Amino acid sequence: MIITIQNEASSEERNQLETLLNQVTGSHKQAISTMMDEREVIVLDDSQLDKQALAAISQQRAVDRVVEVKTQYQLVSKAFKAESSRIEVGDTENSQAVIIGGSNEAPVVIAGPCAVESREQLLSTAVAVKSAGAQILRGGAFKPRTSPYQFQGLGIEGLHYLKEARELTGLPVITEVMEPDMVEIVAEYADILQIGSRNMQNFPLLYTAGRNSFHRPVMLKRGISATIEEWLLAAEYIVSAGNPNVILCERGIRSFDTQTRNLLDLACVPLLHQLTHLPVIVDPSHGTGRCELVPTMSRAGIAAGADGLILEVHPDPNSALCDGRQSITPEQLQSIVRDVQIMNQVMEGITNHSCVA
Question: What CA–CA distance (Å, rounded) separates 112 from 196?
């Protein structure tokens, strides 16, 4: 159950509500207070509450409205917030503002190298990404790798290069954060914090990202074997910690087939738009692991209703220190950006025709 508090509620009225909640829920029931769209909300498990208790809560003067949500994930649920969330990123003085999500916004293309390998590599790629028409630059300063002997990224040095690339191009940047102690440091440099597939259920990291003092949006990648409900509950951790700006990223799930790196679950995109108000991004690079499949699956992702794409781009994929097999060239990116614009126009035409019919 989600209780939205009246903005003008007095301290006395808030205290009366808190006293009532303690009475009807008991000390063992956890109630979480947080902010959602500039409104204070209280989330609690109402499964053991009777109708009389629910009515008493609803009648409190501090209460604006009460929403009973039937799913475990509540704040990210469409039942709580019907309109699609619009998330603004890159509103710093050194980068352009970009909107992700919202019912009337065009899909966003996020692109860049899997890993920041050097200053020259990142800056040249950033300029190419900007020229190709992408709106956000990606680049891994810290890289979680399956093998401890593989390139792990440049760390703090990579963050410095990302900041320089943003100043050079005006593109907001997104990079991965792997541990709670690094959230504030990464947030100082990045416009979006990325939580990777391996860390989707790293709950201390989720909480800390939700509380980052820079108020950076968080892109949450789906775990390699995660169900949709587990994924949404992971997003709930971030939102309940105080950060409503979460972007979901479908990057493929583990399959028995070895022809592709993962199984890109595009059916989850329209399903998520039914279940949650959060924006959904598709990652065809990790979803397929094969650069020749990325353009086709990019178009398919937009056709499925994705709010954008995140793509791995490298000036020379054959020499990439990380995920070269799935990286596309800047020239291929330019073609995909054009395809995204065309696909978006097609989808808008279909939607408008359906509305008229």
Answer: 16
**Residues 289 and 255: beta-carbon distance below 8 Å:** no
Q: Which percentage of the chain shows pLDDT scores above 90? A: 79
* DSSP code of residue 319: G
Question: 37-46, 231-240, 256-265 — which is least confidently predicted?
Answer: 37-46
Nearest of 75, 19, 65, 15 to residue 44 by alpha carbon? 75
**pLDDT tens digits, one per residue of 192-251:** 999 999 999 999 999 999 999 999 999 999 999 999 999 999 999 999 999 999 999 999
Cα of 13 vs its chain's centroid, Å: 36
Q: What is the DSSP code string of 325-342? A: GGPBPHHHHHHHHHHHHH
pLDDT value of position 92:
65
Residue 206 and residue 220: Cα distance in Å, rounded? 9
Degrees, nearest 5: CA angle 169-327-178 = 75
CA–CA separation, 230 and 220 (whole Å): 12
What was the pLDDT predicted at 353? 59
The reported pLDDT for the residue numbered 108 is 97
For 203, other C-beta atoms within 10 Å of its C-beta total: 12
Alpha carbons 193 and 209: distance in angstroms, whole number: 8
269 in Cβ contact with 239 (< 8 Å): no
CA–CA separation, 310 vs 320, rounded Å?
18
Closest residue by Cα to residue 14 from 37, 43, 42:
42
- Token pair, residue 136, equals 């956000």
The answer, yes or no, to whether residue 355 has pLDDT greater than 60, is no
Q: Give the DSSP per-residue string, 140-208.
A: BSS---SSTTS----THHHHHHHHHHHHHH---EEEE--SGGGHHHHHHH-SEEEE-GGGTT-HHHHHH
Q: Which residue has the higher pLDDT, 54 or 126?
A: 126
Smallest CA-to-CA distance from 255 within 221, 281, 224 is with 224
